[in-house]
Amino acid sequence: MATKKRRNGSGYSGDGSNLKDIGLDHLMKLDELPIEQSMIMLKEAGIDVDEEEAIKIMEFLHLLARITIKEIFSPD
Asked: Which helix (H) or strand (E) holds 58?
């Protein structure tokens, strides 16, 4: 599912199938932070993780952001 960020700057997310499964793939494109920057931000927040853990955390936060956006902007 997830692919590690390569040193050439590619993103951390997988194929996005989890977004398609819950109907969020069409909403909008969210920019992804480089995993190194994500790891720095997590470390500054007191969360010391390796690259694989940072990828999983950022994928979860990305999904949570999309769900939140869908809930806020979807008509009732």
From this structure: helix 51-73
Using a 10 angstrom Cβ sphere, with 0-12 exposed, 13-18 middle and 19 or more buried, the burial of residue 63 is: middle
| Burial of 7: CB neighbours in 10 Å, binned 0-12, 13-18, 19+ | exposed
Give the closest residue to 24 by CA, choosing from 76, 75, 71.
71
Tokens of residue 46, six digits = 């007191």
pLDDT digits (tens, 9 = 90+) for 13-59: 544 445 555 565 565 677 788 999 999 999 999 999 999 999 999 99
Cα 24 → chain centroid:
13
